[in-house]
Design goal:
Order of helices and strands: EEHEEHHEEHEEHHEHEHHHH
Structural class: alpha/beta
Radius of gyration: 19 Å
Protein name: Enoyl-CoA hydratase/isomerase family protein
Distance between the termini: 31 Å
Number of strands: 10
CATH topology of the largest domain: 2-enoyl-CoA Hydratase, Chain A, domain 1
Number of domains: 2
Pfam family, one: ECH_1
Largest sheet: 6 strands, mixed
Family: Belongs to the enoyl-CoA hydratase/isomerase family.
CATH superfamily of the largest domain: 2-enoyl-CoA Hydratase, Chain A, domain 1
Helix content: 40-55%
Strand order of the largest sheet: 1-2-3-5-7-10
Strand content: 15-25%
Bound molecules: octanoyl-coenzyme A
Keywords: Lyase
CATH architecture of the largest domain: Alpha-Beta Complex
CATH class of the largest domain: Alpha Beta
């Protein structure tokens, strides 16, 4: 399928979703959000896809936020609908994806762009990346989950400092405060993310999915994360992957999941 603002391709079990609006530093307009939803659904149902990388086209930006130019004429009701649409995509299709989703942050990740990265399971950044939630400088606050997910990742004090000052931080600072998993030279970014995914693919897919769900439950009010972990742990005992993993360990060979 052809997309106007996204590139989508699958290679070696990885779905690559590249936000491609270089003229607006890959800002997420409504059309891009709709296309993001479509590609995520495509990746979800494709049995060949085992993991997803989200990145931005070009060398300057991952995603420089929601498209500010589209905000001008939005009513309160329309703003709410748009925020809800973003929440649905970021929470249900990215954070709750049974397949690992990694953000390869290749430049500016601002506002809704950083919120997109925050919804991913991991964030790897190039050394030139700049991160921030500058919404209060526009008279807004983060509207795609940033107030919650940034707080969960870096703690209340640091989240409030970033959100209230609207200041941008470097990738290195992001690494220091736990927002970024690893910082890499731009030329090495994609290779490293692919390497991490390949490592995950060598593990039990069933167990990986269960682990994502159990970790997600730690931040949910409607589920007891400890109970979710206990349930998944017990369920995994009857899977083929578990029998294979234990047998491989006992017979000193590599597992074949
Ligand atoms: N929206 C629309 N256009 C953008 C955006 C954006 N977020 N960011 C950059 N652009 C456009 C610029 O307008 C410019 O277009 P043009 O050439 O037509 O004037 C082009 O991209 C290049 O940008 P600059 O010339 O500004 O490039 P610089 O290198 O000088 O600056 C910056 C780069 C610092 C990234 C600067 O572009 C910037 O500050 N951008 C805005 C960043 C921002 O404030 N992002 C947060 C937006 S708000 C948000 O994300 C809310 C999320 C919650 C949504 C809830 C839905 C209801």
């Amino acid at each position: 399928m052809e997309y106007q603002h996204l590139l989508y391709q699958v290679d070696k079990h990885i779905a690559y979703i590249t936000i491609n609006r270089a003229s607006a530093l890959n800002a997420l307009n409504q059309q891009t959000l709709t296309e993001l939803e479509a590609t995520l659904l495509e990746a979800k149902k494709d049995h060949d896809v085992k993991g997803i990388i989200i990145t931005g086209a070009g060398e300057k930006a991952f995603v420089a936020g929601a498209d500010i130019k589209e905000f001008v004429d939005l009513s309160e009701a329309e703003a709410k609908l748009l925020s809800q649409k973003g929440h649905y995509i970021f929470t249900e299709l990215i954070e709750q994806s049974p397949k690992p989703v990694i953000a390869a942050i290749n430049g500016f990740a601002l506002g809704g762009g950083l919120e997109l990265a925050l919804a991913c399971h991991m964030r790897f950044a190039s050394a030139n990346a700049k991160l921030g939630l500058p919404e209060v400088s526009l008279g807004l606050l983060p509207g795609y989950g940033g107030t919650q997910r940034l707080t969960q990742l870096v703690g209340r004090g640091r989240a409030l400092q970033m959100i209230l000052t609207a200041d941008l931080i470097s990738a290195e600072e992001g690494l220091r405060i736990g927002l970024i998993n690893e910082v890499l030279d731009a030329a090495d970014l994609m290779n490293r993310v692919e390497e991490v995914l390949e490592r995950i693919f060598s593990r039990s897919g069933t167990a990986v999915t269960a682990a994502i769900d159990a970790v997600n439950a730690s931040n949910e009010q409607t589920r007891d994360g400890y109970q979710v972990e206990i349930n998944h742990f017990a369920e995994l005992f009857v899977t083929r992957d578990f029998k294979e993993g234990v047998d491989a360990f006992l017979t000193k060979r590599k597992p074949n999941f």
